[in-house]
Structure formats: C-alpha cells, structure tokens
Amino acid sequence: MDFKTLYTQKLTTAEEAVKAVKSGDWVDYGWCTGTPVTLDRAMAKRLTELTDVNFRGGILMWKPAIFEIENPAEHMTWNSWHMGGIERRAIAEGFSFYAPIRYSELPRYYRDSKTPSNVAMFQVAPMDEHGFFNFGPNASHMAACCEKADTIIVEVNKNMPRCLGGFEESIHISQVDMIVEGSNPDIASMGAAAPATDVDQAVAKYIVNEIPDGACLQLGIGGMPNAVGSLIAESDLKDLGVHTEMYVDAFVDIAKAGKITGLRKNIDKGRQVYAFGAGTQKLYDYVNENPECMSAPVDYTNDIRQISALDNFMSINNAVDIDLYGQINAESAGTKQISGAGGQLDFVLGAYLSNGGKSFICMSSTFKKKDGTVESRIKPTLDNGSIVTDTRANVHYFVTEYGIVNLKGLSAWQKTEAIISVAHPDFRDQLIKEAEKMHIWKRSNKR
C-alpha cells in the first residue's frame, strides 16, 4: 500500500470535510488537546445551516468556534464526558450537558452503544512511515470512538507530540476517510500550576510520609496532587512507578529528579502509563517519542484489575467536600456540575485491592465564599443535589491540613469522630452538634 498516494487521495479542505455532518448527527469532537481547531472553525460556519447536531467531547482547553455562533442551542448540544470551566459556562446557555459515566467505561460504551457515531473529527500527529496517525496525549477512548464512527476526519497538527504506547494510541490511514492539514496551533497548555499554598504543603507532607520506595503513583489534577508531586521530587524516595489516568507536569518533575524508574512495577515494568495528558509545553516535550512513557486506552489505565496488580499503588485525588457519613463529592457544587466522575472511584477501589496500596482523598478544610465568609468543606450532609463520587464504604484515607485519617471499616460514630478531627477547629463544635442530631455521635467521643 502506497501511504503517500493514499494520503493525497484523502486530503481535502476543512470546508469540504465538514459537509459530512448533517442535521441530527452525533459528532465526536476528540478529547482534551485533540479537539479540532481548523475543522471546528469550518464546522461553526456550517452549523448555522443545521439543527439538532449533537457533539461529544470533554476537558475543553479552549472555547470552540461552534460555541460562538448565534443561538447555539438552536443548532446543537454539547455532551461532555468531563466538564471544565468553558463547558460549565455553556450549561447556562442551554446547550451543554454532562454525560455521567465512569471514565474507564467509555471505550465499552462506544463499542456497545446503539447511539450512532456519525462523524468523528479530531487532531492527530502527522502520519508516520507506516501510515499511522498518532492520537497525541489522548489515547483515552479514541480508538473505540473511531471503530464506531461512520466517517473519520483527522486534522493533522505538526506540533502534536507523538506518544508511544502499547496499543490503541494511533489510527491507520486505511481507516481514515478524510485528511485535513490544520493550522498547526501550539498544543493548548493548562498553564503552570499555581504555587503551592501552606495548606497544600501541609496536606502533601501527610501523604508523602505514607509513600514507600517503589510505590506506583496516580495523581489527580489540581493544586494538592501537584504539591504532593513537588514534595516527592524533593524527597529521598526512589524507584517509583507511574500508572495514572492523567499525565500531569508533576510527573515530569519527579522523573527528571531521578525518582521514577518503574523497575518495581509488577506490570508494564519501566513504563509510565497514562490515558491522556495535559499541562505545559514541558510535558508535551517530555512525552514526545519517549519510550519510557506509555499512552494507553482508559479501559486499561483505569481498570481496577490492572491497578490492583501493581504493588504499593498510591492514588492521590482532590474532592469538593465530604459529609460526616464519609461520602465524597468530587464533581459538583450542589446541583452545579463542576467536573465529572472521571476515574476517581476506579483508583480508590483499585488502590485498596493493591498489595500495600492506599488511596488518599485530600482537600482544604475550608473555602472562602465570594462575600469573604469562610465555610467548612466538611458538612453534616452533602448539599442538596451534590453528587456522591466515592461512597462511604469505599473511602480509604482522608486528608486535610489538620491531619490524615483512615476511614476504612469504621463504625458510623468512629468515622464521624475521625472526620471531625481533621476539620477546621472553628467548625468542630457545630459539626459535633449536627452529628448528635443525626445519631452518629457517641457520648464518650473525644471533644
């Protein structure tokens, strides 16, 4: 097969390519840094002629042109597998909606779903000598998505890193219907993490003290996991491994500090495994053609069976709030969707099944409202409409700047006592009063 000839035959303009989209279609729009750019601009122009076009994507790094058209709700819906700030704002405009799912289930959803996948369009790295277009740091669910799509359109970006993998990290030209050579924008950056606060540092110290040499790490996105990463990079820990959903800048820092070898991993020895990555240019440069890094589909990275096969697995994630029953909300503020279920529960479950494994849910004990008042993130019960991301039966370690507690297996009164013990001191007495009303406080408990 002459790949160059085939490439020329399939090469077209963005304006011609988007004509494949019809009213009523379901259109997959890539994922994270793989969201189309040149195709998106052409799609925005065509969209005003169409109705009821349903787009799917997630973790938008910039505002797509299709969001900018006049009255987008009259022409489209945006259905997100994981919300970000751009998508949250679009909810108020009536065309953006969250699609709840455990992230690990996404490839199977595509393969089994009866919902059509009419068109898939997304950014890729340039074709290699074997005819493959690499998904960049977005293996995630893209192979499964392409398997079900009636029409596949790739937008080539010369700046997309080529992320080596084990499987399902690329698509072959024989499977592609149309090729568009894009405007080659720089890969979108999340920006450098904000400097760690005193609270972040306090939480990080509690967690790092629990990590042994040879541990395998998963870090969530956010200030606290990044603070943990920074502290690990400065620590005496050695022979660490990586098996994570999202590859973040902190892993690059830990690796460059010589802490990551992966040599004690039970599977994928020596490889840093991830489903997708987003961060600064430092990250994109590091994962580009790096054989130490392994881009893999999310139903592998987040599979509880794979996680649990790795000894001393350490899962570190954020939360929005927790109640006195031990229920973790990591994705909403009441009825306002903030992010999504993601893979947090997969890693909480998998880490506990790992030999020596631990999962940590961390957060600041309080937050400041717009009017300047301070509220506790530890609540008697979750706010009306808040989502339970991790059930009270599954949470292992819970960490604030006031301490770390192991909640696994505790009776209701023990669990309540442990949670209140790491609440901000200004709120503990009121939490005790509420716990007494709910009959989950024992009179002999510590005060």
TrEMBL record:
Transmembrane segments: none annotated. Residues 5-182 form the Acetyl-CoA hydrolase/transferase N-terminal domain. The keyword Lipid metabolism applies. It comes from the Bacteria. It is an enzyme of class 2 (transferase). Pathway: Lipid metabolism; butanoate metabolism. It catalyses: butanoate + acetyl-CoA = butanoyl-CoA + acetate. CoA binds at residues 220-224, 320, 343. Its EC number is 2.8.3.-. Pfam families: AcetylCoA_hyd_C, AcetylCoA_hydro. Residues 279-435 form the Acetyl-CoA hydrolase/transferase C-terminal domain. The active site is at residue 245. Belongs to the acetyl-CoA hydrolase/transferase family. Butyryl-CoA CoA-transferase subfamily. Coenzyme A-transferase that converts butyryl-CoA to butyrate. This is Butyryl-CoA:acetate CoA-transferase.
